[in-house]
Write a structure and sequence with these properties.
The protein contains 3 helices and 7 strands, in the order E-E-E-H-E-H-E-E-E-H. By secondary structure, the chain is α+β, with helices and mostly antiparallel strands.
Length: 141
Amino acid sequence: MAPQAIKSVGIGSGSDLTGTKCLRAGGGTLGGVAASVLPALVPLFSPNAVVTLGGCEVADGVKGRNLLMAVSKALGGIAVQGATGYQFTVLGHLRGDVWRARGGRVQNLGQWPNIPGPTAAPPNRMAADIGAVTSSSRTTR
């Protein structure tokens, strides 16, 4: 049997092979605690919420897009997006192509200024973006 392709996103240095401190997907499913924790968050999101994974190269390649799909599935089909480039928070937007997973499919939305949805804002509005995402994610169904 071939080894599973695994993609992870976390913060800081070092590695976490268990999925305790990062989101980790392989074989189309999440590993570690995220598989049981994320479904519990579903009631906190509105149906049109968009979750952004802001790590570097989160959506890069097939493994990255599979990670977006696995997180979306764990969140009950809510849209989850990430980008292919290196991310710098001072810019206030995603760099590279932005990919969004929702409802069992993943789609390339192109570069940031063209992205539809509640998190699409011009650069240098990071605080406003965070406020919009926070209030959007707290709206119950």
